[in-house]
Design brief:
By secondary structure, the protein is of the alpha/beta class. Helices cover 34% and strands 18% of the residues. The chain folds into four domains: 18-117, BRCT domain (Rossmann fold, 3-Layer(aba) Sandwich), CATH 3.40.50.10190; 139-215, no CATH class; 223-267, 5' to 3' exonuclease, C-terminal subdomain (DNA polymerase, domain 1); 276-422, Beta Polymerase, domain 2 (2-Layer Sandwich), CATH 3.30.460. The structure holds 2',3'-dideoxycytidine 5'-triphosphate and magnesium ion. Magnesium ion is lined by residues 305-306, 314, 316, 318. One of its GO terms (biological process) is double-strand break repair via nonhomologous end joining.
């Protein structure tokens, strides 16, 4: 748990800088930050940050506002809110996502508004005839394979390709090799002080000679912290606001008490920040399948997440476990955990029991995690289990690595919805739900599909049933890489 220092404690330099408001330099741009989704404390932090750089930030949504900035990715609800709260027509203002704001902070001036920054007002509820739609605005009406992508990779996924590549700027290569070669225990990091070089390097933007290969936005600010398992945006921001910039800073701060998840996140950082290969995912599938069948011969294990979409690499491996005996699925999951522990391969487990209650559906909180029993694991994967061997960092001579695994356990009659939801991609899911709501007056989430016109739940045993209810052509999992 994180404890705050005594209020009388002297402020760190970063905090004092932030609270000093600078005279407004960019008079023509009046920013308004929308508190919804962003939260009050983050809004106030960003307001101070912008003002300290000479930006005008309005506290209220008035006629003076020229740029509205929101972290709410649900365009329809944001626009509905703006229309209800703006004194004039909100379409006269720039309605922008947070990327415009962060770009402007980095550039220390308001950057030009580009299409990528805009949060567009949603189309009216009447569907456009398919014949006039060239490319649908909804990802669930497009087929996107892994081949379609301009590979945008973060340092977490591409380290070995980058290190030593002469076309890559030296700062990025250095940063990359840092992440690649992280030792496995944070005690060593403390001694070696791996991260101080990040202090002055808030942002790198670089690309290799290969035009399809970009490394964008490697931020060395609080995003370094959110890369740790168990550290969310709020905690990362708290640490950053207290002047902490590097992992050793966090380790050396006596008032910070890491929770169990964060301790494991730091302890296994070197392993779990490196990508998991398809062969490693398959090996884990075999191990968990064995556990399932040792407990319940008719248990069902299904691979989901990015690997089900045909990705070659992922940050974790996601599985659904269930059983034909309705109501037995939760016991199955807890027994699998016991089994893995008994095998000596359970390095971390955060088990969350089911809070699923059909009578509380349909839910309107689409972005929230589902209510099924689930667990977030770190497992020890041994090299001999993996065809072709482990994905190892250079110089790592261990015959095992730690891997993040998620297991979710819905009752069998909810399986199709869970499978569709957990297969992703996140963008595909977002658009599927938006499409259901705006085009079909239906509510879709990981639990159910509700038809608001008929006022009833629609049953589904396969993903195809759900697409059919929505009047959509079926999109195969490997075409959902939006
Ligand atoms: N998901 C969900 N609800 C959440 C978070 C995720 O339904 N609150 C879904 C969307 C994708 C899927 O679960 C798996 O999540 P990730 O593992 O984060 O995504 P991924 O596509 O598997 O990506 P990666 O390959 O990096 O693991
Ligand atoms: Mg995944």
């Amino acid at each position: 748990m994180l404890r705050w220092p005594h209020p009388k404690k002297r402020l760190r330099p970063e905090e004092t800088t932030l609270s000093r408001s600078k005279k407004a330099v960019f008079e023509d741009v009046h920013i308004f930050l929308v508190e919804r989704k962003m939260g009050r404390s983050r809004r106030s932090f960003l307001t101070q940050l912008a003002r300290s750089k000479g930006f005008v930030v309005e506290d209220v949504l008035s006629d003076a506002v020229t740029h509205v900035v929101s972290e709410d990715s649900e365009a329809s609800s944001l626009w509905a809110w703006l229309k209800g709260h703006s004194p004039s027509d909100p379409s006269k203002m720039h309605v922008l996502d947070i990327s415009w704001f962060t770009d402007s902070m980095k550039e220390r001036r308001p950057v030009a508004v580009e299409t990528k920054h805009l949060i567009q007002d949603v189309l009216p509820e009447v569907s456009t005839p398919p014949s006039v739609v060239a490319v649908s605005q909804y990802a669930c009406q497009r087929r996107t394979t892994t081949e379609n992508h301009n590979k945008t990779l973060t340092v977490r996924n591409c380290s070995s390709n980058l290190a030593g590549n002469p076309a890559v700027p030296p700062e990025a290569a250095a940063l990359t090799s840092l992440f690649t070669n992280l030792p496995n225990h944070f005690e060593t990091w403390k001694a070696d002080l791996y991260f101080p070089c990040l202090k002055d390097a808030d942002l790198f933007r670089c690309s290799s000679a290969d035009p399809s290969f970009h490394v964008l936005w490697i931020t060395a600010s609080y995003q370094v912290f959110t890369s740790v398992f168990g550290v969310g945006l709020k905690t990362a921001e708290k640490w950053y606001r207290r002047g902490l910039r590097t992992f050793p800073d966090v380790m050396a701060e006596p008032s910070i008490r890491l929770n169990r998840m964060q301790q494991s996140g730091f302890l296994h950082y070197g392993d779990i920040s490196r990508h998991v290969s398809k062969a490693e995912a398959q090996a884990l599938g075999n191990i968990i399948d064995e556990a399932v069948h040792a407990i319940a011969p008719n248990g069902i294990l299904t691979l989901t997440g990015g690997f089900r979409r045909g990705k070659e690499f992922g940050h974790d491996v996601d599985f659904i476990v269930t059983t034909p005996e309705q109501g037995q699925e939760e016991g199955l999951l807890t027994n699998i955990i016991k089994h893995l522990k008994h095998q000596g391969i359970l390095l971390f487990c955060d088990y969350q029991p089911s809070s699923f209650d059909l009578s509380k559906l349909p839910s309107h909180r689409f972005e929230a995690m589902d209510h099924f029993a689930k667990c977030f694991l770190i497992l020890k994967l041994e090299g001999h289990e993996v065809e072709g061997g482990l994905c190892r960092a250079e110089g790592d001579s261990r015959d095992w690595r730690a891997v993040r695994v998620d297991l979710v356990s819905p009752p069998l009659d909810r399986f199709a919805f869970t499978l569709l939801g957990w297969t992703g991609s996140r963008q595909f899911e977002r658009d599927l739900r938006r499409f259901a709501r705006l085009e079909r007056r239906m509510l879709l989430d990981n639990h159910a599909l509700f038809d608001k016109t008929k006022n009833e739940f629609l049953a589904a045993t396969t993903e195809k049933d759900i697409f059919a209810h929505l009047g959509l052509e079926y999109i195969e999992p490997w075409q959902r890489n939006a």
